[in-house]
Design goal:
By secondary structure, the protein is an alpha+beta fold. It contains 10 helices and 9 strands. The strands form 2 sheets. Strands 1, 2, 3, 4, 5, 6 and 7 form a 7-stranded mixed β-sheet that branches. A two-stranded antiparallel ribbon has the order 8-9.
Length: 337
């Protein structure tokens, strides 16, 4: 049985390549594949010796002409998942992010329609809000904020050295919306990184323990806690960056249609936007924005299995990509329209 992608060793460089040296780094590809299952945004994870992780793999300098070609081949061919949208996200390269070597991870945001996944590495869809439980406000303010997160942040601030207090206070206010500041749904990565710095998430203790023994962060993950399901290495940080990018793009790119079926109701469209945003949106205002953006057109058919009046089906107007440079939903803020 072949090893999962993220446990394979990189192909050795040809003789004409850079000489082997302790300072050389390998290039890792780290796709964050996101879909929506009903009203739940999910991302693809694999299981292996290192614990639950994103489906990473190494760049093959012989087979892969470009980075995007490499990540497409790994997700589409090796995992058997048709992915409709790829976008390079960020490069992660902190020392110690992978034990035993210097590894640069080129992360990609990838969007797909939900379908069952199978494979030797036990691929599975994991709810984004199991990783980041403080990000889903659709059922009201998450309880974990007031019971765990904010008390820990206030304690952290109270113990801050005077030269750092003002900067840390401003950071906490802008990130978690405390002391009268407004919650900004897009700051997903900022919130995870502050939670890590305060020591709230399991990865912080795991990494600190590994570093104190003179090693890089361990791959194994701790048990799920009220602060979410941890992932191996720095993969939850990468996932936070992907969710932040996706939320930010809802306003000015029609990425939401990449996870929808060809025909959908306006209610389904709103539910998917809300799933990504972690926020409820005003129904009539949302529909006015969709109509004003001219993003969809009726198919002439209706969905009958609604339990009531048949709902009209729509499809994405691809012509809008040529009509406007930024054809998004025009949401001013995810918290309301």
């Amino acid at each position: 049985m072949p090893l999962p992608l993220w446990e394979r060793q990189p192909r050795r460089l040809p003789r004409s390549g850079p000489p082997k040296s302790p300072s050389c780094a390998v290039v890792e590809l780290l796709p964050v594949v996101i879909c929506v299952d009903g009203t739940t945004p999910k991302l693809l994870t694999l299981s292996g010796r290192g614990g639950e992780a994103l489906p990473a793999g190494y760049l093959d300098d012989v087979a892969d002409r470009t980075l995007e070609q490499a990540v497409r081949r790994r997700v589409t061919h090796e995992l058997g998942l048709p992915v409709r949208y790829f976008e390079q996200l960020y490069t992660f390269g902190n020392r110690g992010r992978v034990p035993g070597q210097r590894s640069l991870a080129v992360a990609y945001l990838a969007l797909a329609r939900h379908e069952p996944v199978r494979g030797a590495a036990s691929p599975a869809w994991r709810s984004c809000y199991e990783l980041f439980p403080w990000e889903d406000w659709r059922g009201g303010r998450p309880a974990v904020l007031d019971t765990v997160v904010l008390p820990a942040i206030e304690k952290w601030l109270s113990e801050s050295p005077p030269p750092l207090l003002a900067l840390r206070t401003e950071r906490a206010e802008l990130t978690f919306g405390i002391r009268g500041a407004r919650w900004d749904p897009v700051r997903v990565l900022d919130r995870y990184e502050l939670a890590y710095e305060v020591g709230l998430v399991p990865e912080a203790g795991r990494d600190a323990g590994a570093t104190s023994r003179g090693h890089g962060p361990l791959g194994g993950t701790a048990a799920p806690t009220a602060l979410g399901v941890p992932l191996a290495f720095d993969h939850r940080r990468v996932a936070a960056a992907a969710l932040e990018r996706l939320r930010g793009k809802l306003a000015y790119r029609p990425v939401v249609f990449e996870v929808l079926p060809e025909a959908f109701t306006l209610s389904t469209l709103q539910q998917v936007v809300e799933a990504f945003a972690g926020q409820h949106l005003h129904k009539q205002n949302f529909r006015r924005l969709v109509a004003a953006a001219n993003l969809v057109e009726p198919t002439g058919q209706s969905e009958l299995a609604t339990g009531g009046r048949p709902a009209e089906l729509y499809r994405f107007r691809r012509e809008v990509l040529r009509e406007r440079p930024a054809p998004g939903l025009g949401l001013r803020r995810l918290g309301g329209v």
